Structure of Ferrous iron transport protein B:
Amino acid sequence: MGCHSVINNISNTEKEEIRILLIGNPNVGKSVIFSKLTGMQVMISNYPGTTVDYSQGKIKHLGKTGIITDVPGIYSLEATSSAEEVAIKFLEEGRPDVIICVLDATFLERSINLAFQVMEYEIPVVFVLNLLDIADSKGIKIDIKSLETELGAPVISTIATRNIGIKEVLQKTWELGQNDYYARREEGLSKEEIWDKSKAIVKKVHLNSVESRVSKLDKFSDLCINFYTGLPIAIVVLLFCLAIVVGGGKALRTLILLPILNNWYVPLISKLIESIISEGIILNILIGEYGMLIKGVEWPFALILPYVALFYGVLSVLEDTGYLPHLGVIVDGILRRIGIQGSSIVPFIMGYGCAIPAILGSRVATSQKERLIISTLVTLAVPCIAQTGAFIALLGNHSMLAIIFVYLISFCFILLGGIVLNKMLDGFVNPMLLEIPYLLVPNAQALLKKIWFRVRSFMIEAELPMVLAVGIAALVAETGLLNSVGVLIQPLVVQWLGLPAEASIALILGIVRREMAVLPLLQLNLSTLQMVVGSVVALFYLPCLSVFGILVKEFSIKVAIQISIFTIFTAILVGGIINQSVSLINALLH
Ligand SMILES: Nc1nc2c(ncn2[C@@H]2O[C@H](COP(=O)(O)OP(=O)(O)OP(=O)(O)O)[C@@H](O)[C@H]2O)c(=O)[nH]1
Ligand SMILES: [Mg+2]
């Protein structure tokens, strides 16, 4: 990072620190600037509302330490969502020493409007005019000197993604952060006056009359949000993504990972362990039916990881191109019926990866009711990617129809659950206020970094609990504990759901991780009906432990418990109804 070294973790605060706050409209590149200044990896995507919480990092420069905070984007100083509250709280209560206010060169009027509101705080401000390359491609030219004069504070022009201007931002921030220099204060202007003033400034500083050039991507963007052309585009895009994740995942699994595992790894590890331990429980726990060293490697790495990697690959492309908000416009009509705005398609799609970012992402929703609906539906009926991998492993070789059936049930319950919750819960859903970003060609390096970051976090956060869960399965199966636990839930599992008693282990392990409610079924030689029932139960069943934790944190323990009771009840009810009705039809036919 050139002229400064970076320490990522913040410990206690020293006196000599400069506290810096990054502020600006959504999607203007604040997080890119944060990441370039600190060297820290944070989420960066091409849609408003990527950052929903704050990140802090330390910068050391010229012998001084700066603590910089990246917050969610805001349009004004009145919070309309819990994400915006975070930003405004940092500004109002944090009293930073200096503010870096990022302006969007392609949308200057709105940026300046916020700038004036920020300047009322009498805190030194460095203005950063970002996205200059995009402005340039649109034929927008801005007179920086004149903008400086109008704002009464320094303006640095940047192309953050290419690291252009970042060094200057750092220098200016240090200069202002140490001197008591205040931006000019605008006394008590009304909202309308601020808008008028912003408009007048934009007129003054634009060097050309902005007859904005329309690129091919802009034309395609228009096609994506027009319902009649946008709907077929959306279907093609989603089917293409599905093909990559499902088809690609299967190819990776069957052509590369399983052969390596079965032909090389398993014989090698079995030989090794058998040469040390000849028989007994320990041997079985390590390499037996649920062997930790066998299933604990096969399940997470060969069955789940390919889908995780491809899903995050596809998701990251959708995010960085800026396509997701376009999709939001097309699905707004449907989502509104289930109490969600079109813009919430982003957290919803994230739920197909993992429920945690989806629940956190719902912070951009403008009402508590909407947040609750998104979080409940994602927890109830949206399978995470690890669970999808497990469904494909269980049902894929057996019957494609069975997979389609499970996903149809999932869709039906998203719709049904949404309609019911929308009616049941008090509150309101605001009309959609969705900003459509320019479609961009993603930067390959940034994209790969982001995918790697996500896959790595999955490996760190998910693989260990999965291996541990396999260990518990092995222990429970080998010690006969399974039988005693099984007896308790046997009537439910055997009589009502029609599954073998051993399937209880899936229900026990499903508490730890969602895919573990499916994977143990692989060992049981089930009929197609049993597989489908097991999958449907697993689909709804329980939020995994970490999702439960997030629900408590974001809402309350009461809400988390209510959602869990609701999901477990739905799981057992729907699974049982499928089993009982198919069995009845079978009995009548034969
Ligand atoms: N071409 C170009 N793209 C940029 C530039 N700066 C940021 N971007 C892109 O703009 C998008 C938004 O960047 P972020 O850093 O996530 O924006 P943010 O202001 O943090 O957005 P929120 O967290 O949603 O408020 C990303 O796709 C970036 O890659 C720039 O100078 N030029
Ligand atoms: Mg951000």
